[in-house]
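Agenda item 2: alpha-D-glucopyranose complex prediction
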Amino acid sequence: MAEETSWYKDAVIYELSVRGFYDADGDGGGEFRGLTLKLDYLAELGVNALWLLPFYPSPLRDDGYDISDYTNIHPAYGTLDDFKMFLDEAHRRGLRVITELVLNHTSEQHPWFLEARSSRQNPRRDWYVWSDTTDRYKRARIIFSDTELSNWAWDPVSESYYWHRFFSHQPDLNYDNPAVREAMWEVMRFWLEMGVDGMRLDAVPYLVERESTSCENLPETHDVLKSLRARADRSFPGKLLLAEANQWPRDVAAYFGAGDECQMAFHFPLMPRMFMAVRLEDRKPIVEILQSTPAIPDSCQWGLFLRNHDELTLEMVTDEERDYLRDEFARERRALLNLGIRRRLAPLMEGDRRRIELMNGLLLSLPGTPILYYGDEIGMGDNIYLGDRNGVRTPMQWNGGWNAGFSAADPERLYAPVISNPVYGYQAINVDSQRRYSHSLLSWMKQAIRIRQSTRVFGRGSMEVLDPLNHRVFAFLRELGEEKILVVSNLASQAQAAELDLRRWKGSVPIEMSGGSLFPPITERPYLLTLGPYQFYWFNLRRL
Ligand code: GLC
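Presented output:
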């Protein structure tokens, strides 16, 4: 497959909120002009794709996932011209841009819904899902279980119920209606034509409803996606579709189709198991989930992540595992939200630099494309006293000055307060200070990303998990053509030794990738490695 059309396999993606990144006009929230000014920072970090959270007109009751106009920019974030300028500047720096396509629902403020609810006879009525009772689709679970009691909401205007899988102000579109499918293709076309490189398909499992099913992952939903992909391929080859399907591996893999649906999908079940493995100091949770992950078509790729703009979802774990993770990672009960934990990476790792590095080391070396969440590269903290998921969406911390260098506005005017506690506050944790010394987390992240990007093995290679007796050590081999990389991680807080069976690579010499040191050559004998607490190595295996 052409390298140009499978660019996402070699990508390191950076997820960011336009509102939270940089406020150039001093009104208390970021905008496209501000983001454009910070593109050099992102290029310098070494990422090569940006995923932008929703930036469309919206009442912002779900941070923009409640869209009231799909083909425009929220006035607080700028204009379409600002967006085009941003896109050009990103492309000029070799940064691809992935935007959000929220297919499942609109805001209740969207003109389509206003029309649809205006009367039962309105021609747009059938764009949404209506019912006279709440008895339909009883088997569908409630996703925002902390806020919603039902997936049906009463519409007093037309005196009937409408269907919604998320907040009640987000009515679900009716994908049985061909006009809806056509309208969403037009939305997609609008942004692809403008030059965006890919789209994250928000909440895709829920597009279609059928009686007596969970209303998730239905064949009809896959048909909708396949048809969008076919149309995208025809007019805009090489554009990425990235599925957000918080499901078990087999069900997520269905979103790849036979290579004719989405090229990428997030690996939701792997994420919590990485946290679990480091807490249990045992590789088993990761190894097991990788073993139960089906092979995927050649052109497809998993999207890997540690944290994102939502809570750390614990939907794809067993009840027992969920209890364990909640007990270990959310001792402060305020940190719980729905089924998950609303914290950033650094606080989850108790600020332990070694564990933060280890988690990022896994993220960057496991098979798939890594997705970083803004602020985590400097170890930003969170604020669990803000409502919903807002505590992991606070302003980016650029320096130790006024409003963390994010905005010149009065602090009261900021869309969210900056983090200012003594541990994670902007005076201590910010880009400027971390740029100034070579041992900062930011410097470390840059180097790790650079190593990852120095080879295609991480993004495209096969993976073989090794089986040393010591379960606290997780070792695997990535291989692409002649290139081989050995990754060995100590998941424990104590130093460990492990003997690896590397006989197959006898005669090769491991070269440690961050410093270039040669390790003893591999022989017939078990290969002994010792690792400090949470330490990990990436080795190039070379025949000298
Ligand atoms: C996705 C988004 C989340 C949003 C939800 C409803 O899960 O990641 O932030 O609230 O969809 O659109």
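Discussion summary: The chain has a mean pLDDT of 97.
Owner for follow-up: CH.
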